[in-house]
Specification:
mainly alpha; 3 helices
Amino acid sequence: MTISPIDIQQHQFKTRLAGYEKTGVDHYLELIAEELERYHRQVQELKEELTHSRTALQELRQRESTVRETLMTARQVADEINTNARKEAEMCLAEAEMEAERIVAEAHARRSRLLNEIQEIRRQKVAFESGLRGIIEGHLRILDLDVLGLEEPSFAGESVTEIEAPSLKQGSDSEGTAER
């Protein structure tokens, strides 16, 4: 049975002849009622404080749970970002390697083409030099014959046309050589 401060104030004691002094008992009952009322208020305040504390604790637990979930999500996102960045870097590296291989292959192909062109130019140079040497030698022979023909006028009975005839014949040979 719970006793409230009002119960104490309204409680009636039986009186006897040699009983307690009624004013003293009443005064004491009032003091007890006030003290009990003060305790009752204090208990109510503590109950309210406990309710507030429990509510705050529940809110903090919910926040903690939310923070943990957020951290887990952030870790997952960071891991995904790292994985994606690693994959993208690997793709970029692979593309760069492929591009480098393509450039090297093109450079080798160009080098081969240039070497072939150089060989062809050298071959043409040798052919040109041979042809030019042949032409020059042919002209030198013609010049040598002309010089010999001019130095030997000891043909007593021959006419000038006969002397010039071999020169003309040689001149036609030199033209054929020049055409080559």
